[in-house]
């Protein structure tokens, strides 16, 4: 269903991690791009953006307990076995893809989660896990440059802000 036809605002969680022991990412720029795309869009009132930066796995879990999100967007570094979030000291903590998929599946079972966008290298394998069935799972099949990740976010949220459905935005 197109975003503009939804009765209530859709929750979008933007969660970003750039641990101190990893290459720097332009998370600030990606967030600005997303905000501008939503604010410019015809259906800006249909999206409710929540932001968590310097994110730990606890931040992700808590955010999902606090609110029912339709879109969960995680931006950061990835490995073939999982995503890199931050530990309590701001350093790298790999979260296994199976654990993430189970967490997303529990949230999806509530009936609100429609899309998980993983803007990180090697993140597409998470979407291939059985727990992700029925969700739009958007990930990267290999390395992605910072500029490539920014452009992907720009195109996706320009379309979502214009009221397109997730399939058309992707």
Overall description:
The chain has helices at residues 27-40, 57-66, 97-108, 124-127, 146-161, 166-169; strands spanning 10-16, 47-52, 71-75, 77-79, 82-86, 92-96, 115-119, 136-138. By secondary structure, the protein is an alpha/beta fold. Helix 1 runs parallel beside helix 5 (146-161). The protein has a single domain, classed as 3-Layer(aba) Sandwich (Rossmann fold), CATH 3.40.50. Strands 2-1-3-7-8 form a 5-stranded parallel sheet, sandwiched between helices. The mean pLDDT is 93. It contains 6 helices and 8 strands; from the N terminus they run βαβαββββαβαβαα.
CATH class: Alpha Beta
Q: What general outline do the C-alpha atoms trace?
A: globular
Q: How many helical elements?
A: 6
Query: What is the structural class?
Result: alpha/beta
Task: Give the CATH H-level superfamily.
Answer: Flavodoxin domain
Name given to the CATH architecture = 3-Layer(aba) Sandwich
Helix and strand pattern: EHEHEEEEHEHEHH
């Amino acid at each position: 269903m197109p975003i503009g036809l939804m009765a209530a605002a859709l929750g979008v969680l933007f969660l970003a991690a750039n641990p101190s022991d990893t290459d720097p990412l332009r998370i600030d720029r990606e967030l600005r791009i997303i905000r501008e795309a939503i604010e410019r869009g015809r259906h800006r009132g249909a999206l409710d953006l929540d932001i968590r930066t310097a994110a730990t796995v606890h931040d992700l879990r808590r955010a999902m307990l606090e609110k029912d999100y339709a879109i969960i967007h995680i931006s950061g570094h990835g490995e073939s076995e999982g995503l890199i979030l931050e530990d309590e000291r701001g350093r790298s903590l790999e979260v296994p893809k199976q654990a993430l998929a189970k967490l997303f599946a529990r949230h999806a079972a509530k009936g609100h989660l429609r899309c998980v966008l993983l803007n990180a290298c090697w993140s597409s394998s998470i979407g291939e896990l059985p727990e992700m069935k029925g969700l739009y799972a958007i990930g990267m099949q290999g390395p992605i440059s910072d500029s490539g990740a920014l452009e992907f976010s720009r195109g996706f949220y320009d379309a979502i802000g214009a009221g397109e459905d997730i399939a058309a935005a992707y």
